[in-house]
Recover the amino acids of this structure.
């Protein structure tokens, strides 16, 4: 397939997943704030930090109150990672390669775009309860996934989208987990108290992992939650699982026409996957949760750069590419 | 909805004759409309609009910084053409395309028609659309204009006239196809009852025609688009999707050893035929416009070497210049020795002294057009313009007479159209599509463009026009 098209499909996968996870992000905090004891303030700063937009948020002189943060993460077109930006970029990418998408996929994505845009125009962030909105964003994206699941051929294009989706999801899961690091407990000796449990519960619920976690581990325990979301090989939002799936797709893409060994994208991905495979949760905790997640995020960026070099930037070195008649 | 208050003007109405009697081929449609409440019609219109937005059937409007995407309003009352009338149109269009194709081959090669003085030599050779690099070239299979979308109108008597030939990259065919799908949902029972000829096989016919242009058994075909910001981008991606071929832009292509390749995730793959939707002079910065960011360096050399076919062939623009238009009836007689089946609108060439004097004296009654502008830009509608505008155009003509032609104002025919005041007559034109491959085929359908403003004669989508589904009947 065309490199440009592959690039767009990859980013379509990433942006859609990003929008869905942002909806989840914000949901964590809304959930959490409802369970807080009356004397504690809601904390919105951790969301901004975990999404990596702390600097731009501060520069723009915004304050960390509920409405401003929700607006920033949802409807702010100046924030290039907000839900509205991600959905817009996803649709732009889809528009560029529309002839490669099924009619249903395009139409549902187009509807999602108009839905979010309309809410932005109506200044929906001023509403008291936005959970329904986030629910709807999630559901619409899941509908697009479902349509693809049962209508799209497992061709190269499918694998580029999967690759984008799983890399983004791994990155987002690491950030959702990182929110917990940034949420401050009133004092360090409150670790293990009911308030601490509340935080972990909200976090699990935001990734639809609460019931599964309960069944596997029973009690809420911080190192178990970390193990579950980072190292579990069966839960579809754990980082390790995402890397396994991403690797399958990357190998499918790379396998055809392979002449030598593994390409640099496969190597970078394989490195992170095997690290997750060999690490125990104690390794994660000992290196510091935040630091560990930071490293994971940097490795994902490296993988993405290698994918770009191997498949999307062919123009610059086309002379060395083999010519197929 | 009743049509008691339907106003008749002096124009030809497609549905009613001058006595207010419904024409035969509109009977069934009219009785259905009469049975349908105005509320129901409004709902049908609403859901048609909604479907268009959901499908992303949008176009970009140039010079408009606000809304970059708009839908082309699709009126839910179709336009109906009986078969006998259509057969005459189809024969006339085939004849015209055949002659224009011979004309193009001639002026880029032997120039016999110029030597014989049928068409003034300097009109062709000085035209900015006469492309030097194409001189001496014969495109694959000798075909120049593969896809044509000819504009026609009807005058007071109901007679059809050719308005423009549109031999370059006529757009709108995707609206013909998608509008049909939407209108089918609105009147499911009527299609069978009336016997409407299908248009849905257009993409298959287009693909077959494009494949025919290559010598290979299984040629690789692509649609070449300027990209997402082009007003017709929806159509480019739509046609690529419907034909199941790649949609490529300039950056996807490279030329090596006079062959054209697509850059894929697995290296380079040769491409043989391009349905190109970018202008001639943007195709190759080495041959034409050096500033073109849209084109592919070296692609024209590949074309000359016969390694890539373009539809339409570069260089066709010279034959749909509005001044050359005036000579088309003579071109038909010259090459085919036949009387033109379809008439031209009488055209005054400002380049000719007598015509120019007539135009300057009668500008209030005429439509003045630039010879090489499209889309309703750069034109003056005399009867609707102010004195200042008349004066401005008089000056423009005096300063550059070769650049202008004038025609009498035509009274375009009307079709009932749903407006806020109920059904009212609105002016329409007709754009059928003609494919030229192994043979010439006129697709039995068309884009009917409608001027939505009351009394307006400007049907261009960029100037507030809408569209109607066009039904060509089996009987």
């Amino acid at each position: 397939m065309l490199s440009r098209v592959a690039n767009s499909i990859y980013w379509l996968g990433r942006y859609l997943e990003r929008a869905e996870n942002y909806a989840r992000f914000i949901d964590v905090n809304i959930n959490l704030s409802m369970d807080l004891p009356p004397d504690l303030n809601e904390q919105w700063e951790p969301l901004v930090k975990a999404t990596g937009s702390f600097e731009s948020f501060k520069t723009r002189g915004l304050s960390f109150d509920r409405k401003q943060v929700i607006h920033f993460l949802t409807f702010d077109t100046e924030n290039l990672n907000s839900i509205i930006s991600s959905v817009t970029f996803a649709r732009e990418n889809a528009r560029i390669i529309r002839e490669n998408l099924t009619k249903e996929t395009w139409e549902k994505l187009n509807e999602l775009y108009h839905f979010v845009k309309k809410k932005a125009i109506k200044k929906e962030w001023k509403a008291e309860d936005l959970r329904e909105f986030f629910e709807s964003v999630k559901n619409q994206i899941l509908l697009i996934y479902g349509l693809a699941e049962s209508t799209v051929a497992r061709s190269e294009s499918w694998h580029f989208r999967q690759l984008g989706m799983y890399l983004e999801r791994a990155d987002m899961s690491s950030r959702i987990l990182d929110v917990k690091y940034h949420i401050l407990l009133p004092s360090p000796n409150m670790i293990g108290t009911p308030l601490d449990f509340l935080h972990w519960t909200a976090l699990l619920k935001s990734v639809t992992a609460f019931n599964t976690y309960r069944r596997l581990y029973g009690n809420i325990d911080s190192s178990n939650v970390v193990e579950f979301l980072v190292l579990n090989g069966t839960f579809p939002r754990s980082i390790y699982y995402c890397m396994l799936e991403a690797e399958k797709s990357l190998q499918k893409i790379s396998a055809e026409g392979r002449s030598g060994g593994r390409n640099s994208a496969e190597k970078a991905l394989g490195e992170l996957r095997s690290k997750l495979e060999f690490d125990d949760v104690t390794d994660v905790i000992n290196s510091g949760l935040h630091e560990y997640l930071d490293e994971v995020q940097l490795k994902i960026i490296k993988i993405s750069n290698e994918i770009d070099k191997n498949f999307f930037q062919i123009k610059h070195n086309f002379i060395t590419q083999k010519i197929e008649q | 909805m009743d049509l008691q208050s339907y106003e008749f003007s002096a124009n030809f109405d497609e549905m009613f004759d001058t006595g207010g009697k419904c024409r035969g081929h509109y009977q069934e449609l009219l009785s259905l409309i009469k049975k349908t409440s105005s509320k129901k019609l409004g709902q049908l219109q609403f859901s048609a609009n909604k479907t268009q937005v959901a499908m992303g059937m949008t176009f970009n409007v140039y010079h408009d910084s606000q809304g970059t995407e708009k839908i082309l309003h699709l009126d839910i009352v179709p336009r109906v053409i009986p078969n006998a009338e259509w057969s005459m149109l189809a024969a006339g269009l085939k004849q015209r395309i055949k002659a224009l194709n011979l004309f193009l081959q001639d002026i880029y090669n032997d120039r016999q028609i110029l030597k014989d003085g049928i068409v003034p030599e300097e009109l062709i050779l000085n035209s900015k659309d006469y492309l030097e690099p194409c001189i001496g070239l014969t495109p694959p299979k000798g075909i120049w204009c593969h896809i044509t979308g000819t504009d026609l109108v009807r005058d007071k008597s109901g007679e059809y006239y050719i308005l423009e030939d549109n031999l370059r990259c006529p757009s709108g065919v995707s609206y013909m196809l998608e509008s049909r799908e939407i209108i089918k949902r609105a009147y499911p029972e009527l299609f069978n009852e009336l016997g409407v000829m299908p248009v849905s096989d257009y993409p298959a016919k287009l693909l077959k025609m494009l494949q025919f242009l290559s010598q290979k058994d299984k040629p690789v075909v692509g649609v070449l688009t300027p990209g997402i910001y082009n007003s017709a981008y929806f159509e480019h991606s739509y046609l690529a999707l419907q034909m199941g071929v790649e949609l490529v832009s300039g950056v996807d292509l490279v030329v090596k050893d006079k062959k054209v390749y697509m850059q894929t995730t697995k290296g380079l793959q040769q491409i043989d035929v391009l349905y190109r939707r970018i202008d001639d002079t943007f195709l190759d910065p080495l041959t034409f416009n050096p500033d073109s960011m849209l084109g592919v360096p070296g692609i024209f050399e590949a074309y000359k070497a016969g390694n890539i076919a373009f539809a339409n062939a570069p260089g066709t623009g010279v034959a749909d210049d509005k001044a050359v238009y005036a000579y088309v009836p003579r071109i038909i007689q010259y090459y085919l020795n036949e009387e033109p089946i379809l008439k031209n609108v009488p055209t005054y060439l400002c380049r000719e002294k007598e015509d120019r004097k007539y135009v300057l004296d009668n500008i209030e009654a005429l439509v003045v057009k630039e010879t090489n502008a499209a889309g309703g830009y750069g034109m003056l509608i005399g009867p609707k313009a102010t004195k200042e505008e008349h004066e401005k155009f008089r000056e423009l003509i005096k300063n550059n007479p070769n650049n202008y032609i004038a025609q009498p104002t035509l009274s375009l025919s009307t079709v009932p159209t749903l407006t806020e005041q109920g059904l009212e007559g609105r002016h329409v034109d007709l754009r059928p599509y003609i494919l030229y491959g192994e043979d010439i085929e006129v697709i039995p359908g068309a884009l009917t463009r409608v001027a939505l403003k009351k009394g307006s004669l400007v049907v261009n989508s960029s100037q507030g026009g809408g569209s109607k589904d066009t039904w060509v009947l089996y009987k």
Remarks:
- The mean pLDDT of chain A is 88.
- The longest helix of chain A spans residues 3-35.
